Amino acid sequence: LKTSPSFDKYDALWVMGGPMNVWEENKYPWLIQEKLFIKNWVLNLEKPFFGICLGHQLLGEALGASVVKSQSPEIGFKKIYVNREFSSNNLLRDFAQDIHVLQGHSAEVSNFSKKEVSVLASSDNCSIQALSYLNHAFSVQFHPEVVDETIQNWISIPKIKQDFYGALGKEG
To answer: Where does residue 31 rank: exposed (0-12), middle (13-18), buried (19+ CB within 10 A)?
Structure first.
């Protein structure tokens, strides 16, 4: 295993997505160290964190939630619903109550036991689309980082191409 970067050299941590799942440690052994790093970063050091897709799921697991295979994978542009109970003081505060976002996942975070976790958004098929932990860790299941070329770049990865074409068809 590669050594982890020093905690003190960075002010914030962004963890992006990928075609792997959080439970695939045998196939992706670096996930073990990544999970420990995130858990220490968020729970012990309480430094700023932002996770997208896989990063969202890794944060969920670090906070004690289960990450499970989705009953209905979400691929493509889907509607999510912002939870107005928490929206006045979070990253989704200026968004409409329901928005369309790009999804690309077949796993999801579920079953939180920590009272410090707030569910910021959900969808019809995924109850935790965005979350916050205290006031320093945030994550989203969807993909706000998308630019014009993103989908073309994603489908150059065989696993992602298979998931997208399976959900949307080759014309989707």
So the answer is: buried
* Residue 143 is a catalytic residue: yes
pTM of the full structure: 0.84
Say which residue the tokens 């695939």 belong to.
24
- Looking at 46, 116, 145, 171, which residue is catalytic? 145
Active site residue 145: yes
Active site residue 105: no
**Alpha-carbon span 112 to 167, nearest angstrom:** 28
Q: Tens place of pLDDT for every residue, the chain, 172 residues?
A: 456 667 788 899 999 998 899 999 999 999 999 999 999 999 999 999 999 999 999 999 999 999 999 999 898 889 999 998 876 667 788 888 999 998 989 999 998 877 899 999 999 999 999 999 998 999 999 998 877 777 677 677 777 777 666 666 666 5
From 34, 53, 74, 126, active-site residue: 53
Is residue 2 classed as helix, strand or coil in its secondary structure? Answer: coil
- 3-state secondary structure at position 152: helix
H or E stretch covering 43: none
